[in-house]
């Protein structure tokens, strides 16, 4: 996971918006927060609703990938080029309970396999989040992925299509798919990428609901979000106290990474047995500040933040 995908905590809260948020965006990313509608250049917030149509500005292959030269029904123009297809909710659209979605608002439509959109989001509370989607799904199998700052994607697959009312096209029949995935996020700015692996979707929004707060606890990656290693780190008197619990034996890597994503110290590289591990190692040659401890083992990657004091 790119370490630039998280924001370093500041002792002065007023610095959070002024200088640190932009530093969390991956280096070289050219997208800008959508300036239209209610956002007006402000990132969409998590916990909360992330609308798919409010993807970042910057044009094709920056804020979106679209397989059409001139997509159908578009309402946005990025760098003088029309973007991925968008459709307004109309009187023919229906929710699973028969109610009508808000008229006039827009959703992503005409989605083709491999298309994606990116949205800059601001995670305001570190924690474990359940993801709910609001979509029209035509058939199975179907797969979408969600990733943050181009990290390991979380997969959403085989959502059950909602039966359309008589005479109603499946693409106008909407359903709320609750708790389809779980992800753990640290605070700060992230670039969320929603990819449609195949084609049976119209998509309106993702809803991120906080399941539990973690503070600066481990950041998880991995598609299946399997067992946690409960990684912990605390630095006192230039010694780092580390604890973790490996769910299975295997090759493990334990390293310290700075806030720019560079590995500055390798603490462990090699086979480790299953179960609890506790280590107390000296910290040498590192300047005071915030760092991240990264553990990678058997397909699991976790990170937790710690601080070296003056």
List the keywords.
310 residues, mainly beta, Jelly Rolls, Immunoglobulin-like, 2 domains, five-stranded mixed beta sheet, 1 helix, 47% strand, elongated
CATH-defined architecture of the largest domain:
Sandwich
Q: Can you count the helices?
A: 1
Task: Flag low-confidence runs.
Answer: 1-23, 70-75, 77-84, 220-226
Radius of gyration: 21 Å
What class, by secondary structure content?
A: mainly beta
Distance between the termini: 28 Å
Work out the number of β strands. Answer: 23
Mean pLDDT: 77
Percent helix, as a range, is under 10%
Shape: elongated
Q: What is the top-level CATH class of the largest domain?
A: Mainly Beta
Q: Main beta sheet: strand number and arrangement?
A: 6 strands, mixed
Q: Work out the count of structural domains.
A: 2
CATH topology term of the largest domain: Jelly Rolls
β-strand percent reads over 45%
Instruction: List SSEs in N-to-C order.
Output: HEEEEEEEEEEEEEEEEEEEEEEE
